[in-house]
């Protein structure tokens, strides 16, 4: 059949065959099929296909999980901590109400809330734990969706007047508390006496239990009415910091000057990037290293294509010689083997891309079904495996794999095209 196609093509093409003619695809397809005589070559081609498929799928899955981690951690950390922190320089923030109002009117600012923050020791009849107490106004706490939108017990209604506190779910579990129970908070910065500063110990009703979804926050944060926190930490009508939430977390640099002007007093501004620089830099480094390491899988699979094509060229030397004597050009021979090798890489790439996208999109369901209990949120911060498929990254992985697959075919194809038909027929 191949001989007939070759003769027909050569008979109707006085100037030679056009690039990638149908008969070139037919020959390449025949070389890709498994035959008993060429079983070892086909086995190598199969492993090359599987290597590229798994390499591309793994790259897409890992990059999606890393992107999901960054997005979730950013939303959790920034969602509950704010984007910009305004602290005083010359005098305490006793004018926090007016200052918060001015900051909230800056374009791009969604919320500016005054806060009293301090460390304390929380205890119950069942245990104790160090906590971070945050004093905020009830109307401000309701605007923090990471807290008010994830209430698991109790309510925030009447938060200012009821004298209760809101605690994280993991802290409640560690202390054996439920909504309505009493939690005891102790701080060394209590009342000042002639003998020094005495510790302050006070019991509070657990008004609400929230779950942010980040284990460290759920086990540490305690929200208290602002006026109560001022008294608990001996604040003389002032706050420690004003947290500013922006519409876009990445617009911090653009709004810094506007916030300084709106403050109308000397203040120092720190943003979420400065506070979490080491953490997010480590994530970025890990992401880049994982990309390089996993790219090696695709590279190794591409090298397998080289070895399989070289063996195929050696095995098909007689066929190449016959094609050359029938009028096939070196370009024709090169394109045949280029199609043969590239087909392995291209099909493996697209199958791996599909597999990676499907797996990454359903990784949470797969983890819960196949590996229940493996993901420990107390160790990994988040309550479940996050995943976000970035189309740009998927395209970059696919293009990288296609380029490597194509490059892997060049040398064996060139070697096949340079084969001397006389020598091949003599020793083939």
Automatic annotation (TrEMBL):
GO CC, one annotated term = plasma membrane protein complex
Q: Where in the cell is it found?
A: Cell membrane
Ranges for domain ABC3 transporter permease C-terminal: 291-421
Q: What is its main location?
A: membrane
User: Per UniProt, which keywords does this protein have?
Assistant: Cell membrane, Lipoprotein, Membrane, Transmembrane, Transmembrane helix, Transport
Q: How does it sit in the membrane?
A: Multi-pass membrane protein
Q: Which InterPro entries does its entry note? A: ABC3_permease_C (IPR003838), Lipoprotein-release_system (IPR051447), LolCE_TM (IPR011925), MacB_PCD (IPR025857)
What name appears for this protein in its UniProt entry? Lipoprotein releasing system, transmembrane protein, LolC/E family
Q: Which organism is it from?
A: Methylobacterium nodulans (strain LMG 21967 / CNCM I-2342 / ORS 2060)
């Amino acid at each position: 059949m191949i001989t007939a196609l070759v003769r027909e093509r050569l008979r109707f093409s006085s100037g030679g065959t056009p690039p990638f003619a149908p008969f070139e695809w037919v020959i390449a397809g025949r070389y890709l099929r498994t035959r008993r005589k060429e079983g070892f070559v086909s086995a190598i081609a199969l492993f090359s296909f599987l290597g590229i498929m798994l390499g591309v799928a793994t790259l897409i899955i890992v990059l999606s999980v890393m992107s999901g981690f960054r997005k979730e951690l950013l939303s959790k950390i920034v969602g509950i901590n704010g984007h910009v922190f305004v602290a005083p320089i010359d005098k305490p923030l006793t004018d926090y109400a007016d200052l918060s109002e001015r900051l909230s009117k800056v374009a791009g600012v969604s919320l500016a809330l005054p806060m009293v923050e301090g460390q304390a020791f929380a205890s119950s009849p069942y245990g104790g734990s160090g906590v971070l107490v945050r004093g905020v106004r009830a109307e401000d706490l309701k605007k923090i969706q990471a807290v008010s939108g994830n209430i698991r017990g109790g309510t925030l209604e009447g938060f200012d007047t009821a004298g209760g506190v809101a605690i994280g779910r993991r802290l409640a579990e560690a202390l054996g508390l439920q909504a309505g129970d009493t939690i005891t908070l102790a701080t060394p910065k209590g009342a000042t006496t002639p003998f020094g500063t005495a510790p302050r110990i006070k019991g509070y009703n657990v008004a609400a239990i929230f779950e942010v979804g980040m284990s460290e926050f759920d086990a540490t944060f305690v929200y208290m009415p602002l006026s109560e926190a001022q008294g608990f930490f001996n604040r003389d009508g002032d706050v420690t910091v004003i947290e500013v939430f922006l519409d876009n977390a990445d617009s911090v640099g653009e709004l810094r000057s506007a916030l300084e002007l709106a403050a109308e007093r000397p203040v120092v501004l720190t943003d979420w990037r400065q506070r979490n620089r080491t953490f997010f830099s480590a994530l970025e480094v890990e992401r880049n290293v994982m990309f390089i390491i996993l790219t090696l899988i695709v590279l190794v699979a591409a090298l397998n294509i080289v070895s399989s094509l070289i063996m195929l060229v050696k095995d098909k030397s007689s066929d190449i010689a016959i094609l050359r004597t029938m009028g096939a050009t070196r370009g024709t021979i090169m394109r045949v083997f280029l199609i043969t090798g590239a087909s392995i890489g291209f099909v493996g790439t697209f199958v791996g891309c599909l597999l990676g996208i499907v797996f990454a999109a359903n990784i949470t369901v797969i983890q819960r079904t196949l590996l229940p209990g493996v993901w420990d949120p107390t160790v990994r911060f988040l309550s479940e495996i996050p995943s976000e498929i970035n189309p740009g990254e998927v395209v970059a992985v696919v293009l990288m794999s296609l380029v490597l697959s194509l490059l892997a075919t060049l040398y064996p194809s060139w070697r096949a095209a340079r084969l001397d038909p006389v020598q091949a027929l003599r020793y083939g």
